[in-house]
Write a structure and sequence with these properties.
Layout (H helix, E strand, L loop, with lengths): L5 H23 L23 H20 L5 H18 L11 H16 L1 H4 L12 H24 L4 H29 L10
Length: about 200
């Protein structure tokens, strides 16, 4: 099994750090922003002070996902391509921001939806069969994480439709889960392949 290069480890660590750091900094620059009730897209809306912070976050996190997908050579090619598609769509969200007169423009909705589907569903195409597969790339693990992430996305969608007041919280929960899973896959692959070296007992079978 081919390994994950060091730059894939860096990109997978950087994604959740930059995502949380980006929306935290952006929110601190907008004192009236409510992280529980408002979406992160509002931080990058046209006319918003310092909107470039969240816009840049969308781009750099997308680049991190893209680099991680290229580095995840042990994963199934379909999953890697789905993650790449989600990463590119996420970057295009920055180019199609919300505006005061149009909270959900079609360009924003389309690219945000594609990005959300990509980073949620990619494990379904990344799993591999066989005994010599890291735990994170096994079918059971893929099924569990897709189910969990889908549940969080459904919560986000319900909050958007009903206006129950926790859309920001739901979006952040989904975003963190989606950002942490590529890191978990990368680390499990690295650990597994290290344990498979001659003279070392395999960590997983």
């Amino acid at each position: 099994m081919r390994g994950v290069p060091w730059w894939g480890v860096v990109s997978s660590i950087a994604a959740p750090v930059l995502l949380v750091g980006g929306w935290t900094v952006a929110a601190s620059l907008q004192p009236h922003f409510d992280p529980v009730a408002d979406t992160v897209s509002a931080l990058a809306a046209r006319g918003t002070p310092d909107r470039w912070v969240m816009s840049l976050t969308f781009v750099v996190v997308g680049v991190c996902y893209l680099v991680t997908a290229l580095a995840l050579r042990p994963a199934g090619i379909a999953g890697r391509l789905i993650l790449i598609g989600g990463a590119v769509a996420g970057m295009l969200v920055a180019a199609n921001p919300e505006s005061a007169g149009d909270t959900y423009p079609w360009g924003h909705i389309i690219w945000a939806s594609i990005g959300l589907v990509g980073v949620t569903a990619w494990p379904a195409g990344a799993w591999r069969r066989g005994g010599g597969v890291p735990w994170s790339l096994r079918p059971a693990a893929a099924a569990v994480i897709v189910t969990v992430q889908l549940a969080l996305v459904v919560w986000f969608a319900v909050e958007l439709v009903t206006g129950a007041g926790q859309v920001g919280l739901a979006e952040r929960a989904a975003g963190i889960a989606q950002a942490l899973w590529p890191l978990a896959v990368v680390l499990s692959c690295r650990r597994y392949l290290t344990a498979r070296r001659p003279g070392v007992e395999p960590a997983y079978e």
